[in-house]
Amino acid sequence: MQDDFTQCMVSNTRMAARAITRRYDAAARPFGITSTQFSLLGTILATGEQTVTDLAERRGFERTTLTRNLDRLEKMGLIDSRQADHGNGRICGLTERGRSLVDQLLPVWRKAQAEIHGELGADEFDRTLSMLRRLAAM
Fold it and tell me: Which of 2, 54, 90, 96 is a good FRET partner for 64, with 20 to 30 A between their CA atoms?
């Protein structure tokens, strides 16, 4: 019975996700945002304006979690939003202040990424990312 829980995929992925999130949150904290919020800013920068629905699908967020983070980013002046032309959705884009924050945080983010890469080693890092992508696509 004990082995069932130590081998549980749900428990182990949650613990790993929390450990990684704490590490990236520590990198983002001096900039006044969380790793989740940085991920959203980076996604919007890389893909351009997005609807909330598209962002939720692209990043794998629950809409309520996503909306809460987008509202905070908008209050901080890092994104702006407008009503979608069709339907009742909203479209979010980066402000100049948001782009500037991404530029400032990106080297710190890359350092955190390099530290994890170094701890796992290149092959294990790449295998882990590949496995996580496969699991996300299930």
Answer: 96
Name the percent of the chain lying above pLDDT 70: 96
- What are the Cα distances from residue 90, in Å, to 30, 127, 137? 29, 37, 26
Q: What is the CATH number of the domain that holds 22?
A: 1.10.10.10
What single DSSP character describes residue 82? Answer: E
Say which residue, 64 or 73, is predicted with more confidence. 73
Q: How many domains does the chain have?
A: 1
Domain ranges, residue 22 = 2-136
The predicted model gives 78-105 an average pLDDT of 91
Are the CB atoms for 23 and 120 separated by under 8 Å?
no
| Closest-CA residue to 43 (of 65, 66, 11) | 66
> What is this structure's pTM?
0.86
Q: CB under 8 Å to 72, separation ≥6 — which residues? A: 37
**How many Cα atoms occupy the beta-carbon half-sphere of 64 within 13 Å?**
0
Q: Would you give the distance in Å from CA 81 to the centre of its chain?
A: 19
